[in-house]
Each structure stands twice: as structure tokens, then as C-alpha cells.
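Hallway conversation turned thread

IA: we were arguing at lunch whether anyone had actually written out Vascular cell adhesion protein 1 isoform X1 end to end. Turns out nobody had. So, for the record, here is the sequence (542 residues) and right after it the C-alpha cells. Reply here if something looks off.
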Amino acid sequence: MLKQMGRTSQAVLVILYVLRTVKAFEMEIIPANKIVAQIGETLVLTCNTTGCASPSFSWRTQMDNPLGGTVNNHGTYSTLTMNPVSVVNSHDYLCTVFCDKKGKKEKSVKVELYSFPSDPIIEISPSSVAGGTVTVICKIPDVYPSEHLELILKKEEHVLHEKHFYGDDSTNTETKTVTYSFIPMAEDIGKEITCVAKLPVPYMDFKPKERVSSQKLNANFGPQNTIITASPGNSLMEGDSLKLTCATESNPPPQIVWRKHLADESIQHLIKNNVLSIPHARFSDSGLYICEVINLVTNRTETATVDIVIQGAPVITELSIEPSTTVQEGENVSIQCSAESNPPPKIILRRKSDSADMEPFSAGSILLLPSVMFLNGGGYECVAENKFGNSKSEITLNVEYGPKNTMISVIPATAVKEGETVVMKCTSSGNPSPVISWKKKKATGEFEKIFKNATLTIQNLKSQDLGLYECEAYNQLGKEEKAVKLFVQARLENPDQMLPLIIAFSSVAAVAVPVVAILIYVSRKAKINGSYSLVKALRLKV
């Protein structure tokens, strides 16, 4: 009996042990409860079992709508894959599991859908111009459910427009659009236009529920309010640096061109830049400068001008002689001088000289010398002056002419004793300096060249050296000749030839001595008597 009771207890223990080691039949759906899925993505529902070796699965929707997905069984679990998720998948999905004698089990899960895939798209109407209407378009692509959609348009922090899509009964994804137009001011350029999209579905848990996009307002306008700034100013001294800056309001940035009005009314094109720099201003830089700004998008042009005045002491820019600095006597000559300054200079052209007489003289830029003479050659100066100072420049006029004033000097004389030395010197003026040569007239009457130099020296003069000598002064402009005749006196070799001269001299002396004595005596008597009478004097003498 005891043995039987023991066996019964052991059997109960075995049954209890088996019951404890065998798992109960269970199932679950993953994910469980409520699922929030975004349209267009992939959703996988898994129906999993435990405690059943060979379960069979069945998927369906309430109201027996199409599954909108693919079922795959994998032993103890089954999957329903929706790829992509669409609006047809917005159902309660029921999974039923059959397990032989263990019966069946069911569970359901609710799939709720939304679509908020991307940030808003902002479009601002192109080629808009300040002062004109700008249209801003904000698009929300593929949104669902749109009945909860809220859109806000802002300019910086200022709200331009709001829209709520309450009551929208769309049953699929749609692109929702908000359009707003306004007139921007110039100060609005560069400010951000922001589109804020909200999808606050209260019973759905997804992120993000707010999306934001921004774009800077880039309205095209201008150019306008164009001005030129001159630094250090529009009136400056010659040699100073000058910077001209052209400022304007324009979008997009304009093309800038600098121009300058010239004295002949033509226009000089300078640079394409908003800053025009002149490191060292010259008088020629004076004038009217034009800044032209062109907006190629708005097809508008605006200009600004500034008048620049460069002042300073004169600078002589030209000093010249026409037709040349070297001319021939008799030509017409003009000397010209040009100078730059502001205020305009007073110009004086004159002959350079240390004396008070500065002729020729011209109080102007041209000095005329008609039929120039060799005396007009030499240095000339141009003086330009104004209240800031003066400037001086010099030039030399070279007047060429043929030989003139040709002269011959003979030392000791043209009549000399035989055996002496005679020096004959020929001088002549001319430009270029003349070449001097000597010729002697032969018995045939022809002249023979005998010497090429200014000074002809004849030593130990002989009778055959007498005759006519000619000096010739020559340059490429002409020649001039002068002649001199040498008279050679022969020596007296017979002393008897002097006797008649001695006798004549003695006779004159015999008569002259008494006469001189009488005159001395009369003179003394006149001093004593206070008067003089030649007759009385002679009577007394007798």
C-alpha cells in the first residue's frame, strides 16, 4: 500500500514537472498597439508566436479592405510588409494564429499615417524691382493630413501672412501652397523671408512636426542715390594724391564706368571700377569726372559728376624754336613756350642777358624773329609765373652766317726794310668759324695759294717778297676776301748820296739860329714894357 502511494506521488510529480516545462501558446504583434507611419516609407508588421511548433497565420483588415502589403511566413512568425506605405494602409490590421489542438489566437494593431517629408520650398518672383510688387510662394510638398497644416510667412521677425488648412478633406498627399505679395523697400533687400510649416496632429507621435525654410529677399532695383566722394577734396595742389569713390544703391551690383570730359568736348573713357585713384595729380587731371552706373538686370542707368581743380605753380611743358635751333641768317624764326598751371600762368619770352636791355622780348607764348641776324643768336629763356610760384627754362638759338668783317693787320707796316720780319694776320667772323688761307698775286696776274692759316709770317724779307697778298675767309655759307700790298724799301749802299742832304740841313740851320735869337729878345722886351711891337723892336735893334 505504501509502495503504491509512493508510485502515485512520483507520477504526480512527473506530471507537474512536465506541465511546468511546456510553454503556453501565446502570440504578439510587433510593433504593438498603435503605429504611426509616414507615407512613402516602409512598414513591417510582425506576428510572432510562442508555445506552438507549427502555427498557421492569417492577416486581414477590418472591413475586409485590401492588405496593401505582402505576407511572408517564417515558421513561428509571419510578416506583413508595406513598401511603400500609402493611404490604403490606414487600417486596423488583425493577425490570427492557429495552433493544432491549442486553438487560435488573434491580435490587432492600428496603423495611422502622416506625410511631412521635407522642408518648405520658397520661391520669390524673379527680376523684381524695389518699388514694384514682390510675390513670395511657399510650398509644402506631399503633406498629409493637410487639415492640420499651418503656414506662417515672416520677414525677419515680422509676420507677413498666416494660413490654416482646417476643413481640408484631402484623402491623399498633396503639395500645399501659400502665395503672398507685397512691395519691398530698399532697406528690405537682404532680409530673410521665412516660411514656417506646422503639422500638429494631436493623436500622432512623430517628429518633426514643424519645418522651416528661409531665403533672403533679393529684389532687383536701382541704381539710385549715386554720389561721388573726392578725397581729400575736389580742389587740391599739383602732385597731391586724389581718390574718387562712386557709391550707389543697386541690386544686383551695377557695372561702374568712369569718364572724363576733355577740353575739346570729347569724352575719355577711364576704368571700370567704383574707385578711381590718381597717385600724383597733374594739371591735366583737372576737369569734369563722370561716374556712370548701369544695372543690367533692371536696365537702368544713373550718373554723378564732380569737377576736379588741380592748382599749383607753373610747369613749362615745351620750349622750342621753329624751324630749328640752328638756322641761317635771314630765315624767319619763332620761339614758342608752353606751360601748365592753375590759375593760368603769365608767360614771358626774352633774350637771356645780364644787362637791363632784354630785347627781343615777348609777353606771350611766341617770340617772332623775322629775317634773323647773326646778332640774334644766343640764349633765350621762358619764364612762367602765377601766384603759386614760377618756372624757368632756357634754349639756345644758333644763327649760321658767312664770313664777315674780314681784316688784315701788318706788323710792323706795309713798307718795311729788306731783311726784316713781316707778320700779316687775317681775322674774320662767321658761323661756323671761317677757314682762312693766303694767296699771292703772280707776275701773270693770277693768284697762287701759298699758306693756310690766319697768320702769315715772312722772315728775312727780300725784294721778291713785295707784291699783292690776299686773305680768303671761307665756310659753307660763303667767303670774303681782303688784299694788302707790301712795299719793300731797298737799303742805301753809297754814302755819297747823303752829302746833299747834309748841306741842305746845314743851310737851314744857319738861317734859323739868328731868327730864333731875335724872337727870344723881342719876347723879353715885351714882358718889360707890357706891350709888344715887332717894328719898334727892330728899330731899337738897329
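OS: looked through it. The radius of gyration is 67 Å.
IA: good, adding that to the notes. The chain has six domains: 22-114, 121-216, 221-312, 313-399, 402-489, 498-541.
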